[in-house]
């Protein structure tokens, strides 16, 4: 077919395809069902089923992670996160778990009680520390972020969110 035997292909263009120049060419699927399923699992683990919701008719961000206690750091660690606008070097505290959301935002869960975030004795989000791209920091009490923070998060104007679990 005129292609390298080392080429990785998800599928090969059949000789029945109307464009003869593509016959025998190999293509890689961008998102297979397995990839989509894996991304869904990560979203549910890190944020819960519905991280954005309406509270009193206003957009709110209410993460409900489903994380085992052994996924949280045992010691503080220096980690590099890669984002659309570059990489961030972050010192994660002991008993924390971090991931990126919406291309440029780092979300950190702090779990000083070292408990699961699901089940009978689960810890839940108690407080948020929000750092905007401008550098302004705000502390928000409660299990969800209300406006204007929820919209700012979706619009990529939040640099990081540190959540305290209790």
Strand order of the largest sheet: 7-8-11-9-10
Please provide the ordered H/E string of secondary-structure elements. Answer: EEHEEEEEEEEHE
Parts with pLDDT < 50 across at least 5 consecutive residues: none
**Oligomerization:** single chain
End-to-end C-alpha gap: 60 Å
Q: Helical segment tally?
A: 2
Label the overall shape.
elongated
Strand content: 35-45%
Largest sheet: 5 strands, mixed
Structural class: mainly beta
What is the strand tally?
Answer: 11
* Overall pLDDT level: 90
Helix content: 10-25%
- What value does the Rg take, in angstroms? 21 Å
Keyphrases for this structure?
mainly beta; 166 residues; 2 helices; 11 strands; 13% helix; two-stranded antiparallel sheet; 5-stranded mixed β-sheet
How would you characterize the overall build of this protein?
The protein has helices at 33-47, 149-154; strands at 11-12, 26-27, 52-55, 58-61, 77-83, 86-92, 96-101, 105-110, 125-132, 137-141, 158-165. By secondary structure, it is mainly beta. Strands 7-8-11-9-10 form a 5-stranded mixed β-sheet. A hairpin with a 2-residue loop joins strand 3 and strand 4. The radius of gyration is 21 Å and the shape is elongated. The chain starts with 10 loop residues before the first strand and ends with a strand.
Concise summary:
With 166 residues, the protein is mainly beta.
What topology emerges from the helices and strands here?
Blueprint: E1 11-12, E2 26-27, H1 33-47, E3 52-55, E4 58-61, E5 77-83, E6 86-92, E7 96-101, E8 105-110, E9 125-132, E10 137-141, H2 149-154, E11 158-165
Parallel strand pairs: 8-11
Antiparallel strand pairs: 1-2, 3-4, 5-6, 7-8, 9-10, 9-11
